[in-house]
Write a structure and sequence with these properties.
By secondary structure, the protein is of the alpha/beta class. It has helices at residues 18-29, 45-55, 68-74, 86-93, 111-119, 130-145, 155-164, 189-192, 197-200, 210-218, 220-233, 271-279, 310-321, 325-341, 347-360, 369-386, and strands at residues 8-13, 34-41, 59-62, 81-84, 100-103, 123-126, 150-152, 172-179, 240-244, 250-256, 261-265. Bound molecules: nicotinamide-adenine-dinucleotide and magnesium ion. Nicotinamide-adenine-dinucleotide (NAD) is lined by residues 14-20, 41-42, 44, 63, 89, 104-106, 109, 127-130, 154, 206, 208-212, 270.
Length: 389
Amino acid sequence: MAENEQKKRIAIFGSTGSIGTQALDVIRANAQMLEVEILTAQTNAPLLIKQALEFSPNAIVIGDETKYNEVKEALATTSIKVFCGEKALEEAADFDTYDVMLGAIVGFAGLKPTLRAIKKGKVIALANKETLVVAGDIVMQTALENRAPIIPVDSEHSAIFQCLVGESRNPIEKIILTASGGPFLGKKPNFLVNVKRDHALQHPNWNMGAKISIDSATLMNKGLEMIEAKWLFNLQPHQIEVVVHPQSIIHSMVQFEDGSVKAQMGLPDMKLPIQYALGFPERIKNDYPRLNFRKYPSLTFEEPDYKTFRTLGLAIEALKAGGNKACVLNAANEIAVWAFLKNRIGFLDITAVVEQTMEAIPFIAKPTLDEYFESDGEARNFAASVMKM
Ligand code: NAD
Ligand code: MG
């Protein structure tokens, strides 16, 4: 970047999470081109305060209103503006003072602020896949109307995005999403029925937030990613394939109409796709460890075990059905994963809760945004009632 160019001003929504903290590592290492404008967190006040003191953003938002005084007092001697609550989160997305929103909130909660930023025509570096899973049609249409570029941060989608650079005139035949298989690759239901929270949280290749770690263990994450890919790259369900690749070196692939396949590779480190999205269209030089092919003499590929990991099949059903199905799937999954993390239901119950909720909630073929919110609420209530919570 030329020295006289302005720094990119970044708003990190969900700065205290796994993606948020890694994004701050990237910004810290590239302070000559990136600066922090807004930080937000839901409950982790001490970490938000620490981040604010280090990066001196213009404004921060703490979602949990009971933490407002703690945060405000800790920053009393600074000029950092402190806000709290859900409305403030949306209003912060409206600020004129930033360039790129990094959407790093987990779950449905990311949808509203992301849509607000899109309406302002901001560049969206999107990690929060649930936003696209829930309302991908509205999100992509709004982005088109407001010329808001959406640059994926999810490693598979970043890989596909990178494979597509320079290919705008060439239709995609299909994409192949790679899946690590998660911590229970090769396991069968008689093992999974007894799986406990702490075991499910241990992913072999990635260190991630709790919700996505469980989604990776059930393979729901790959299902959500199929739906995310449909919207990001304007694909039909039959153009989206999943292959299990336990080494997580190939992050995904694109097959073109001449049969040629492009793959994007690298060590599994989320800082790489985060950095690519924040730097885009430039690649930022770094000194992270490099991929050494001799250390990976065999890259292997296999079919997912759809019979054991039935959430993947449920997500494919939602992908094909369209309408509010994926919104319902996502809501039920969020409630069920939360219950599993609290040790209230078993690992395989997650699948059962999602399946029953998908059957129960009425189908809407072309929902409005309000109807997506209603479907989300209904699905949450139903899922909770199934679990007798
Ligand atoms: P995380 O749980 O570690 O962090 C979530 C962040 O969102 C925190 O800062 C938290 O304060 C905030 N948050 C939580 N609930 C909120 C709410 N109701 N309202 C506002 N803010 C809220 O999650 P993560 O692992 O960093 O994942 C974030 C998103 O990125 C998810 O959508 C996930 O699927 C996606 N993603 C994560 C990874 C990864 O490696 N962690 C990889 C690919 C995609
Ligand atoms: Mg991913």
